[in-house]
Amino acid sequence: MLVLTAEDVRRSVPMNVAVDAVRDAFTELAAGHFVLPPRQIFGNGAVLVMSAYHSPTGTAVVKKIGIALDQVPAIRATLVWTGNGEQMVAEGSSITTLRTGAVVGVATDLLAPAEASRLTVIGSGAQAPDQVRAVLAVRPIADVTIVGRSADRAAALAGELGTEFPDVRFTSSTDIDASIADPHIICCATSSATPLFSADSLPESVHVNAVGAFRPTMRELPRDLFATASTVLVDQTEAALEESGEVIDAVTSGTLTTQDLLELGPALSSPPPRSGRTVFKSVGVGCQDWAIAAALAEMP
Fold first, then answer.
1. Which end of the chain has the least Cβ crowding within 10 Å, N or C?
2. Could you name the CATH architecture of 103-284?
3. Is the pLDDT of residue 73 over 80?
4. Which residue has the higher pLDDT, 88 or 74?
5. Does domain 2-96+287-297 have CATH number 3.30.1780.10?
6. pLDDT value of residue 70
7. Which residues in the chain are classed under CATH 3.30.1780.10?
8. pTM above 0.90, yes or no
């Protein structure tokens, strides 16, 4: 049995590889090649269990996640991959942030303007660095603003990422409205229970990713953003209607209908226009974990 640490995961699957792997997995999902049981949720979201089975290869993953938002790190996870008579166990928190970043890279590549150069990331926690890495992997970003409730944490993350990407200008802020006034791309990666901003604070043309809210009681995006968006993209409609507080609120209020939700897999073969305000909401599905696990299993 192969056992991999977080360092092994990072060394073996760089972000550009992760983005390609996750893109291919969603194409496979749209083709009907995955069995994705609903995510099991225990203890009001304190423990999650996700799984995916890839029919063409007979390979599967199961990931257990423990979540404690009042602790650091907030997410602790373990992933098990099986296939071809072999088994791999990997540290799952690194896979979770990597595959969450990667799916944002896929969606951003699909919806954001090709020349997008300004990025704002709201949130300075564990998910934020891979949000930056993913967007930088698919767009020529020159300026990044990290927004956080803690000025020190936001500045520290901006400094760390500035060292990693010396050709990109990084700044930090605690003012959300000022930081979302003119970016081309926004990534939301917080545990907020209430919307982070009003659509009135946004440019008329912007792509917004949201990955932080994973319970019906959580919301990062405002209802009025959905009302003004030309495209609302989700990783999987069923999962979004079960777990995304923003999507549930928008559908319940009549702001959106289920027919307004575009799934990522089919959108890859029939891309929507890149115009106006576009939204990608992800709660995470098992094929993303499978994609990273499969890439790890192929490493020398």
1. C
2. 3-Layer(aba) Sandwich (3.40)
3. no
4. 88
5. yes
6. 76
7. 2-96+287-297
8. yes
